[in-house]
Design goal:
Shape: globular
Distance between the termini: 60 Å
Radius of gyration: 22 Å
Length: 322
C-alpha cells in the first residue's frame, strides 16, 4: 500500500509539473486569432489591437485571420474543430450569443464546443440619424414614430445581425412601430442612414464615433450608464428617458473545447495584462469602449446570460431561425 501511494504521489507530481511547464512555455509557436467577420469591423479592430499587444508581451507572433460567412458561424465552427493546443483562438462578439436563436442547428455545440477565455472590451450602442434628419432628440424620433406607425425605418446589416436586434431593442423599449430595412452589411446600413435612405440605425459606438465626428450622422443617445468621453454631448439612455435601454456589444476570446486549463488561464492573464496598458486603454476609450479581462468562469457565466437575454429579444421580435 505504501508503494502504491508513493507511486501515485509521484505520478500526480509529474502531472502537475508538466502542466506548470506547459503554462510557462506557452506560446511555443505562432497563435492564430480567428475573426469570423470581414476586416475593418469593430471585432476585427479589437482583435488586431490585442494581437499586437500580445505579440509584444510574449515575444511570439499572434496574428488575425478572417474567416467570413454565415453570421460568423463558419469561423466559429473552424475554431471549435481546431486542435485544442493553444495555437488557435476565436475572437467573438455579441452575435455569438444570438446564433442559437437565429439558426435551427449549428455545426458545433454552442453551449460546450468552445471555452470562453475572457472579454476584451464592451461598447455601448448608439442611436443614429442622418445629419440632415429632422429628429434632433430621441423624443423627436419617438413622437414621430408614434404619430406615423410603421412609416419610419431602421437599417441593419441584415436579418439577425447585431444592428438588426439593436433596432428591435429600440422598438421594444420605446414601444415603437418601425419598419426594418436590411442591407447586405453594416457598412451599407451606415451609408443608408447617412444618405437618408433610412431614418435610424442602432450600432456599436466604435462604428458610430468617426461618422459623428465627421458630421455625417447625429447621435440621439448612447446605451451606457454614463456619458462617453468621446461623445460628451450625447445623452445616456436614462438621461433621454429610456433608462432600461442599456444593451452593449461585447468582444471576447474563446478556445476549442479540450484546450488545457493552464493555457486558458495563461491566455486570460496575458489579455488582461495587455488591456491594463495605458496606451491600449486610451485607444479603446477613444472608440467608446471599456476594457475587460474577466476570468474564464466569469466570462462563461456572462456569455450564458447574454445568450438567454438575446434569445428573449429574438423571440419578441418574431425573428424566425434559418
Amino acid at each position: 500500500m505504501r508503494r502504491f501511494c508513493t507511486a501515485l504521489f509521484a505520478t500526480l507530481t509529474l502531472c502537475a509539473a508538466a502542466a506548470h511547464a506547459q503554462t510557462d512555455s506557452w506560446p511555443q509557436r505562432t497563435v492564430r486569432l480567428i475573426v469570423p467577420y470581414s476586416p475593418g469591423g469593430t471585432t476585427d479592430y479589437a482583435a488586431r489591437q490585442i494581437a499586437q499587444a500580445l505579440s509584444v508581451q510574449t515575444g511570439k507572433t499572434f496574428y488575425v485571420e478572417n474567416k467570413v460567412g454565415a453570421s460568423g458561424t463558419i469561423g466559429s465552427d473552424m475554431v471549435a474543430k481546431a486542435a485544442p493546443d493553444g495555437s488557435t483562438f476565436l475572437i467573438n462578439d455579441t452575435t455569438y450569443a444570438m446564433l442559437p436563436h437565429l439558426f435551427k442547428k449549428l455545426p458545433w455545440d454552442h453551449a460546450n464546443g468552445l471555452v470562453p477565455v475572457t472579454n476584451i472590451v464592451d461598447t455601448p450602442l448608439v442611436v443614429l440619424v442622418g445629419a440632415g434628419s429632422p429628429y434632433r432628440t430621441i423624443k423627436d424620433l419617438v413622437d414621430a414614430a408614434r404619430r406615423m406607425p410603421d412609416k419610419l425605418t431602421f437599417g441593419s446589416g441584415g436579418v439577425g445581425s447585431s444592428t438588426h436586434l439593436g433596432g428591435e431593442l429600440l422598438k421594444q423599449h420605446g414601444k415603437l412601430a418601425l419598419t426594418h430595412v436590411p442591407y447586405k452589411g453594416a457598412g451599407e446600413a451606415l451609408l443608408g442612414v447617412v444618405s437618408g435612405q433610412v431614418d435610424v440605425l442602432v450600432t456599436a459606438s466604435p462604428t458610430a464615433i468617426a461618422q459623428i465626428k465627421g458630421g455625417k450622422v447625429r447621435a440621439l443617445l448612447v446605451t451606457a450608464a454614463q456619458r462617453l468621453p468621446a461623445l460628451a454631448d450625447t445623452p445616456t439612455s436614462a438621461e433621454a428617458g429610456m433608462k432600461n435601454f442599456t444593451a452593449t456589444n461585447w468582444f471576447g476570446v474563446a478556445a476549442p473545447k479540450g484546450t488545457p486549463p493552464a493555457i486558458i488561464d495563461k491566455m486570460q492573464a496575458e489579455v488582461k495584462r495587455a488591456l491594463r496598458s495605458p496606451e491600449l486603454m486610451a485607444r479603446f476609450e477613444e472608440q467608446g469602449a471599456t476594457v475587460g479581462g474577466m476570468s474564464p468562469s466569469e466570462f462563461q457565466a456572462f456569455v450564458r446570460s447574454q445568450t438567454q437575454e438575446w434569445g428573449r429579444v429574438v423571440k419578441a421580435a418574431g425573428v424566425q431561425p434559418d
